[in-house]
Amino acid sequence: MPSNTTNFLQMVNFLKQRPNTAYYFNTSLHAKFIVVDDTIIISTGNLTETQFIYRHVASMNLVNMPDTTYEGTHSEMNAYYLSRNNPKLADELVTYFEVLTQCPLTHRAF
């Protein structure tokens, strides 16, 4: 379970209500992409609502360094690739996804 359990559970509940939607996870993999028809989004960042945060942080406690705090700009901006009307790439990513779902460390959550 991710550290931000509230947002994660909201995302899971949202996805469960959508037809033709499945959620898989693999703790050894860090791939992030979405394919809808012939539109593709590939991301370096987590696909969450906090992804576009850019703000001043007065005192941020670091989980792995409890005696350390941070003050400054907090940003979760990452790179995104968007391609529309690209059936070839969409098909390749669907095939890649299907291969990933068969990996021994991949689990289907729903």
From TrEMBL:
Residues 25-51 form the PLD phosphodiesterase domain. InterPro entries: PLipase_D/transphosphatidylase (IPR001736). GO terms for molecular function: catalytic activity. It comes from Vibrio harveyi. GO terms for biological process: phosphorus metabolic process. This is PLD phosphodiesterase domain-containing protein.
